[in-house]
Design goal:
- There is one protein chain.
- The protein is 20% helix and 29% strand.
- It is globular, with a radius of gyration of 26 Å.
- Strand 1 (30-32) and strand 2 (37-39) form a beta hairpin.
- The protein has 3 domains: 45-350, Glycosidases (TIM Barrel, Alpha-Beta Barrel); 374-379 and 513-601, Galactose-binding domain-like (Jelly Rolls); 386-505, Jelly Rolls, CATH 2.60.120.
- The strands form 7 sheets. It has an 8-stranded parallel barrel. The protein has a 6-stranded antiparallel beta sheet with strand order 16-25-17-22-19-20, with no helix packed on it.
- Helix 9 (277-289) runs parallel beside helix 10.
- The longest helix is centred in the first third of the chain and has 25 residues, at 2-26.
- With 610 residues, the protein is α+β, with helices and mostly antiparallel strands.
- The protein starts with a helix and ends in a 9-residue tail after the last strand.
């Protein structure tokens, strides 16, 4: 017994000191040299891949990182999305696909470093630039400013992010190399005191390692903060890039292109953006040869699912809501498959790897299936699925109804009113107008359509206006003009219409939708439901070319929006969200209520504009 006790004590000390030794071995240092980043005191060139955890099914994170390593990537870059993590004030969510800490740990397990971009403003072609919608309900709040209400709420959020991620910084034994303060702030303003408050808030929240700023070349003067490394976006001329960094960093480096764009994103009604790899491979070669570190935005875009797409708008251009596919013509396509761009970039990177380093094999293409035609046998009119309304003299916005995304139905009764010109001021963003349940017109903010003639019958008339939030502005000076719905008033021949009912339709889940029977009324919004059986699973695409406008859910997963105007005509369905046996599909169709068949495809269509 005495020998056993001694043995156990000895084993305890061996384990304790052994684990401590292992922890010490795994601790690294990361610092700024005069011209290079220094990892454990040695020059380190970041070749980073931007990919966003919410745009990739959690089940696929590891595989996408495997693919990144196969191209020669050693670091993963990601934003942190405030509206996902605090969807309602004070209610935080870091679970499931929002588990950013697990995303970072997965990168660590794959031998990859991480560049973290909590910002909190992200742009990213993301709804409201990542801000939660409810900020607009805080009276007096001004985003990206020293306004006290904003700073207090921002501080609370950033502390929660710190609880998740601060311990994963490299100076605490983790794999986060650097953390970005704000995001292209020079595009927005130039308040250095505000930027310094940001810096202090990050440190206060536990981000006590290396901090940096990022801005395009034209706005570095306004966006950088003395003492932090100024990373440059989009500038890949080595001589100019180095000159600019030295100008704002005490004559020193290191040199980091925080966003290097191998292509671009898409918005509804315009052609799909592509850039030939032959154009950018030589630029990548020259940047790496000059010892500059780089973050490819995007290496893999994935999909902006649900209602999370943003929109662009300014005084010189129309409202431009972005599509659901975030394929980005990136080296790794929307489904995570290798492209020709991937192969050409890999060839370039291999020229610049340290001696003796070999890349993993290029991953094979993911299995693909083509789902046979699906009959959507059950249906319900959207007017039959309305919740209890809220009444108000004037129309209420989404925000006033505490609704984040989706749709809102506005209803009023016109009593013996003569026909006239209906004007919605200010419609955001897409409206279907119905008189006594019959659709009489469509209004579209993109096309600056806010008016139509109402040919009203005699007697009492029910006027319905179904409004879709097409995505809040994510960039530019209009971040605080992002309320949705009917944001001012409705006029008929110049007279304001009052006495409204608002029906909230967020469509945040399809679980409670009662879809039975059959709908045959033309031109009304309809929810259709069906099922299909699979013998095997694989990636696939839904062909939406015969449909009008709406959304699709498969097995409860929101795949994103579709719209016949294109350029996106398909919706990507990850294999991980399908199952052998029965699968359920739900479609919300706004325009073509008679469509009942959903067709599958084995490849995407992202370049067809109608």
């Amino acid at each position: 017994m005495r020998k056993l006790t001694i043995l156990l004590i000895a084993l305890f000390f061996v384990c304790a000191f052994g684990f401590k030794g292992e922890a010490q071995k795994s601790t690294h240092s990361f610092a700024l040299g005069d011209s290079n980043f220094l990892l454990d005191g040695k020059p380190f060139q970041m070749i980073s891949a931007e990919m966003h955890y919410p745009r990739i099914p959690r089940e696929c994170w590891r595989a996408r990182m495997h693919a990144a390593k196969a191209m020669g990537i050693n670091t993963i870059g990601t934003y942190v999305f405030w509206n996902l993590h605090e969807p309602q004030k004070g209610k935080y969510n870091f679970t499931g696909n929002n588990d950013i800490a697990e995303f970072v740990k997965t990168a660590r397990d794959e031998g990859l470093w991480v560049i973290l971009r909590p910002s909190p403003y992200v742009c990213a072609e993301w709804e409201f630039g990542g801000y939660p919608y409810w900020l607009q309900n805080e009276k007096g709040l001004v985003v990206r400013s020293k306004e006290p209400i904003y700073l207090g709420i921002y501080r609370n959020y950033l502390r929660e992010v710190g609880k998740q991620l601060a311990s994963l910084q490299i100076n605490h034994g983790g794999n986060i190399l650097m953390v970005q303060v704000e995001n292209e702030y020079g595009f927005y303003s130039n308040d250095k005191e505000y930027m310094d408050i940001n810096r202090k808030l990050f440190i206060e929240s536990g981000f006590d390692g290396l901090l940096y700023t990022c801005d395009p070349a034209s706005t570095v003067k306004d966006g950088h903060l003395d003492g932090l490394l100024p990373a440059i976006n989009g500038l890949d001329n080595p001589a100019e890039m180095k000159k600019l960094v030295r100008m704002y960093h005490g004559g020193k480096g290191p040199f980091y292109i925080a966003e290097w764009y191998p292509a671009w994103f898409d918005w509804w009604g315009t052609k799909h953006h592509t850039v030939a790899p032959e154009k950018y491979a030589p630029r990548l070669d020259s940047v790496l040869a000059a010892g500059i570190s780089i973050n490819m935005y995007m290496f893999h875009g994935g999909t902006t699912r649900g209602f999370m797409n943003g929109a662009n708008y300014n005084d010189k251009s129309p409202f431009e809501p972005q599509i659901s596919s975030y394929d980005y013509d990136a080296p790794l396509d929307e489904a995570g498959n290798v492209t020709d761009k991937f192969m050409q970039f890999r060839t370039v990177i291999m020229k610049h790897l340290p001696a003796g380093v070999k890349l993993p094999a290029v991953p094979v293409k993911r299995p693909v299936i083509e789902i046979p035609a699906i009959q959507l046998t059950q249906s319900a009119s959207l007017f039959g699925l309305l919740p209890a309304p809220k009444a108000n003299l004037t129309p209420l916005t989404f925000e006033a109804m505490n609704q984040d995304y989706g749709y809102m139905l506005y209803r009023t009764v016109l009593k013996d009113i003569k026909p006239g010109m209906l004007k919605i001021k200010d419609l955001r963003d897409y409206g279907l107008v119905f008189v006594n349940g019959k659709r009489i017109g469509i209004l579209d903010r993109r096309l600056k359509q806010d008016s139509l003639y109402l040919d009203l019958p005699k007697g009492n008339v029910t006027l319905d206006i179904l409004v879709e939030n097409m995505g809040r502005i994510n960039f530019g000076p209009y971040l605080l003009k992002n309320q949705k719905g009917i944001t001012e008033k409705v006029l008929l021949d110049g007279k304001e219409l009052t006495g409204w009912q608002m029906f909230s339709l967020p469509f945040d889940s399809t679980d409670k939708l009662v879809v039975k029977g059959s709908v045959n009324t033309p031109n009304i919004p309809v929810v259709r439901k069906g099922s299909f059986n699979l013998q095997k699973t694989g990636d696939t695409y839904l062909d939406m070319r015969l449909w009008g406008k709406g959304c699709v859910w498969i097995n409860g997963h929101h795949l994103g929006r579709y719209w016949e105007i294109g350029p996106q005509q398909t919706l990507y369905v990850p294999a991980e969200w399908l199952k052998k046996g029965p699968n359920e599909v739900v479609v919300l169709e706004l325009l073509k209520s008679g469509q009942t068949v959903l067709q599958g495809l084995a490849k995407p269509i992202l370049d067809q504009v109608n």
